[in-house]
Amino acid sequence: MGRAPCCDKNGLKKGPWTPEEDQKLIDYIQKHGYGNWRTLPKNAGLQRCGKSCRLRWTNYLRPDIKRGRFSFEEEETIIQLHSILGNKWSAIAARLPGRTDNEIKNYWNTHIRKRLLRMGIDPVTHSPRLDLLDLSSLLNNSSFYNNTSQSSQMNMSRLLGMQPMVNPDLLKLATSLLSNQRQNLQDYQGNNDFTSNAQMQNNFNPMVQTNATRPCVPYFDEAQLMEPNFEQYPTSISNFDAQNFDQWQSSGLPMSDGLVNIQPTNFGYYGSDQTFMDPSLSDNSTFQSNISSHSNFMSYAPSVMSTPSSSPTHLNSGSNSTTYVNSSGTEDEPESYSSDMIKFEIPDFLDVNQFLLAQTN
DNA sequence: AAATAAGACAACCGCTCTGCT
DNA sequence: CAGCAGAGCGGTTGTCTTATT
Asked: According to the model, what pLDDT value does residue A233 have?
């Protein structure tokens, strides 16, 4: 049985604040400071509950609040932090001076979330929505969760369409991760009625957890992000390079959720364009860490703001199967950036046209 | 011009956490 | 340790504004 709402008491006003009420609250706090919110309204002569006063002050009247549109950088920061922290709005707000958790939450729900959805990106997982590409069923049908590591490797490489290029070590690592995740899945399913597709993608889908489709965000431990001294960690994810990754690993700091980024050079949230040598290859060919440019990995740039302006949509055109999706659809938001373009690399064996046809029928 | 729908955001509700007794 | 109150958080609702028909 919960406590009765503080505003249940008779005579306490609810709803929008009037300028007079605002002024009373401001005057009182300027004189006496804030503190005991329960007694504050009475002392300030307000017919409001303390909770309402606190909310009004912290979300609206506080002098250090920055009003107005979110800037490009702020939006970028919100997306990046949300990919790490999830709906921890207060933690996100702590990294955005002058913005309140409520404001960020509202902005997320009304702007960013919708934009990501339009782009085919799951706003919860920050990964491409597999329910759109129906990759999950494809994974199941291809015996992706096969028991033998060898066949898992084969399936994975086949799925990713990169068999000739992949580093076997990476594949091995991914396979062992798969194995762990499969175990987790079994454990989890044993205890839960587990039906949410989004959760499924978030927690167990190997396509999501490998760097191929993850938004290339280093896996900060949440507690570290909560630390006030955030500067010691790379605030710009794209600056988090291989060296940082090595330091990160050697520091012994935990990877959250048991997840590991397979390719440390691909930490750029935008998808960096660095290359590294694949020691497993006898010749001098390089393995593009920016998978989208060479292999058939599917990659995407959640940070769509940085992409150049509009290009025509073309699907599955050409051997490289580079697919541009103008996610903005019919609605072009005037704010912040010039285009909502994202770039997908679709494996050859996925017939996107067929898929789109099926979706429209 | 009026009615309606959609969008945006302020405010509320219920729950949890924390500190005090 | 339990109970209580204050404070904070995240999800949801309500209200106002703007766009569309």
From this structure: 36
Handedness of CA A219, A223, A226, A231 (dihedral sign): negative
Q: What's A19-61's CATH class?
A: mainly alpha
B8 C1' closest Cα residue:
A110
**Residue range(s) in chain A whose domain bears CATH number 1.10.10.60:** 72-132
Q: What is the pLDDT of residue A289?
A: 32
Nucleotide closest in space to A114 (CA vs C1'):
B7
The owner of tokens 């490489």 is: A157
Going from the first residue of chain A to its last (361 residues), give the mean pLDDT of each consecutive group of 10, the final group possibly shorter: 42 81 86 80 85 86 81 85 84 85 86 81 76 49 39 37 36 40 41 35 33 37 44 35 36 34 30 31 33 32 34 31 33 37 36 39 38
Q: Minimal CA–CA distance to A319: which of A340, A339, A346, A356?
A: A346
- To the question of domain A72-132 being in CATH 3.30.457.10, the answer is no
Q: Do residues A53 and A24 make contact, with C-beta atoms less than 8 angstroms apart?
A: no
The pLDDT of residue A126: 80
How many angstroms separate the CA of A208 from the C1' of C20? 40
Show which positions of strand C are touched by protein (CB under 7 A).
Answer: 5-12, 14-16
Give the residue among A33, A71, A73, A68 at the shortest CA–CA distance from A54: A33
Protein residues bordering strand C (Cβ below 7 A): A 15-16, 35-39, 50-51, 54, 58, 87-91, 101-102, 105-106, 109
- Distance, in Å, from the CA atom of A6 to the CA atom of A12, rounded to the nearest integer, reads 9
pLDDT value, residue A129 = 67
